[in-house]
Amino acid sequence: MSLAAAEVAQILIVLTVFLIAAHLGGYVFALLRQPPVIGEVVGGLLLGGSVLGLFVPAAPGWLGPPAGPTAHVLGAVYQLGMLLMVFLAGLEMPGSGQGGERRTIVFTTVSGLVIPFAGGLAVAQLVDTGDLAGRHGSATSISLVLGLAIAVTSIPVISRIMLDLGILGSVFARTVLAVAVVEDVLLYVVLAVILGIAHVQAGAAYGLPTLLPAGSVGWEVAYFATASLLFFAILLPWGRPAFRLLTSSPVGVLERRSPAAFRLMFLFALCLCCLGLGIDPIFGALMAGIAMADRQGERRAGTEAPELRAVRGFALAFFVPIYFALVGFRLNLVRDLDLLFFGWLFVLACAIKFGSVWLGARLAGRSAAWSTHFAVAMNARGGPGIVLATVTFGAGVINERFFVALVLLSIVTSQLAGAWLIRAMTKHPGFEEADAEAATTPAAPSESG
Question: DSSP readout, 274-330?
């Protein structure tokens, strides 16, 4: 399909404007030693109805039209940016902890996942959540989203914060990321069930779910839970060996022709597998990242494979910044921000997540100070929190009011985690390793962090 010169010009102008806003926002936030991803969201926020729209009402409609070629291009870039962002999150996922770390990982994963998720479900039963549902939402799906929102932790944001602080290879960082990996995988399974049911209810089911009996919610829940668990259960242990096998198979000629392109093809193939199963393609992107993830710390040592550097560089230069800028652009704080709702959600989410993680760390034998730093770090929701908001909003599970609250929750908790860890590094240098022996010593809780 050919486009008119005016349509091409609008597309190029809009992409350029979003790129400039995203990268400038990320640059400013990086200078402030804050997560650049939050700056990218803020850059888009400034272009939307919350700021620019107040002074030039027609501008947001021109930058993000509801239909037409520009809308289709932005939609495609948005979807690819989300897939690549989740793929990069998979690349950040570390291997299992060693020695005493495993005790902390087990205790904090159980307490930091079960308690917050159950707390979210309980809160949903105590308050009226009917005005939070989208056109395809239900009381059950809203309860699950609320549980996920309280329990989720951001791997990309917290790993970037610790990378900037120079502690990514510490016991503290390894434990935080290992717990976040387990939590996020389990939470993604729940998210797959929510999205699958929403697609069926919307009449937009695809792949195998179209064979399910019509109107059978029980079959839908059972199918999406089973399909998601099987997908993760197969790909987590076998994804990496399968990827290596492909590189040495006849199709490996593509890898030798263009290693970066081969990795993108593997990523898209897993996304297509998810579509065939009827689950969201973001799970294929996550598993592709895990399958290719560095387990030996090459990126931290500056020796990451060139092909992964190429994919990462391209994604972070174009698709991912525009994705986050579009998330900010879609936020209309003037129209959709409910300060009372956001306030109690923020306090509740932080209190439950902090308390449950802190309790797990203490039961594992960590000191009070180390457990506090750990609990604050696990409260950063960042990218996964934003993905939760965008995919459930896009599927019609939640409405604009809940969408805005979830994105702001992700932004504010990430900012607080970054500021707290910077302060901790300044006032207590070496805290990330000082408590290393505590994990293997039952009496360690009496020691200072």
Answer: HHHHTS-THHHHHHHHHHH--SS-TTTTT---HHHHHHHHHIIIIIHHHHHHHHHHH
| Cα distances (Å, whole numbers) of residue 210 to 21, 138, 216, 233, 279 | 41, 21, 12, 23, 12
356 touches 127 (CB < 8 A): no
Ramachandran angles phi, psi of 304, nearest 5°: -60, 145
Reduce the DSSP state of residue 133 to 3 states and report it. Answer: strand
Q: Tell me: the pLDDT tens digits for 417-436?
A: 888 888 887 777 666 666 65
pTM confidence score: 0.79
Q: How many residues does the chain have?
A: 449
Q: What is the largest CA-CA distance in the chain?
A: 73
Instruction: Write out pLDDT tens, residues 326-345.
Output: 989 988 898 889 999 999 99
Give 154's strand partners: none
Core vs surface per residue 419-442: b (16+ CB within 10 A) or e: ebbeebbeeeeebbebbbebbeee
Phi, psi of 133 (to 5 degrees): -80, 145
d(CA 446, CA 430): 19
Could you give the residue ranges of the DSSP H alpha helices within 1-68? Answer: 5-31, 36-47, 52-55, 59-63
**Of the candidates 363, 416, 340, 386, the residue with the CA atom closest to the CA atom of residue 152:** 386
Phi, psi of 249 (to 5 degrees): -85, 180
> What residues have CB less than 8 Å from 157, skipping those under 6 apart?
35, 37, 38, 380, 381, 382, 383, 414, 417, 418
| Rounded Cα gap, residues 364 and 441, in angstroms | 9
DSSP letter assigned to residue 398 = B
Contact 149, 132 (CB under 8 A): no
Give the CB-side neighbour count of residue 262, counting CA atoms within 13 A. 21
Nearest by Cα to 19 from 69, 68, 81: 81
Q: How far is Cα of residue 263 from the mean position of the Cα atoms in its chain?
A: 21
∠ at Cα 372 (371, 373), nearest 5°?
A: 95
Tokens of 342: 């956001």
Q: Where are the beta strands (DSSP E) in 111-268?
A: none
How far apart are the C-alpha atoms of 90 and 85, rounded to whole Å?
A: 9
Q: Which of 448, 368, 376 is nearest to 412 (CA)?
A: 376
DSSP lists the bridge partners of residue 398 as 133
